[in-house]
Amino acid sequence: MMRRINAENVSLAMTLVIAAGAFVWSFAVVNELAAMAGQHRALAWIGPVLVDGAIIQATVAVAVASSGVGCPRRIRDSRVLLV
After folding, report:
1. CB pairs under 8 A, 24+ apart, for 6-12?
2. I want to staple 30 with a disulfide (CB 3.0 to 4.6 A). Which of 48, 49, 57, 65 is the partner?
3. Three-state secondary structure along 59-76?
4. pLDDT digits (tens, 9 = 90+) for 17-40
5. What is the mean pLDDT of the segment spanning 56-82?
6. Over the range 73-82, which residues count as b (16 or more CB within 10 Å of their CB) and which as e?
7. Can you say whether residue 80 is alpha, beta or left, with left for phi > 0 and alpha for psi between -120 and 50 degrees?
């Protein structure tokens, strides 16, 4: 049985492809920047992992906080816009 393609699945797939491309591009650029700044090539990969890892962690934290799962009631019920 074939699954129907819906807008939600297409949107999710496109988001994942764009995120993967942005991660690869960012990794390459920040890695090269670290090497140009004098960081040893064997350690230059740590820079992009820290930068992109922080972005991913913050995004997940906002998604979890806005869903209300595992959040204290005062945060879940607040009217503060999470950005």
Report:
1. none
2. 48
3. HHHHHHHHHCCCCCHHHH
4. 998 999 899 999 999 999 999 989
5. 67
6. eeeeeeeeee
7. beta
Query: How far, in Å, CA of 82 to CA of 75, rounded?
Result: 10
Supply the pLDDT for residue 83.
47
pTM, full prediction: 0.59
Tell whether the torsion through CA atoms of 54, 55, 58 and 64 is positive or negative.
negative
What 8-state DSSP symbol labels residue 38? T
User: Is residue 1 pLDDT above 60, yes or no?
Assistant: no
Identity at 20, one-letter amino acid code: A
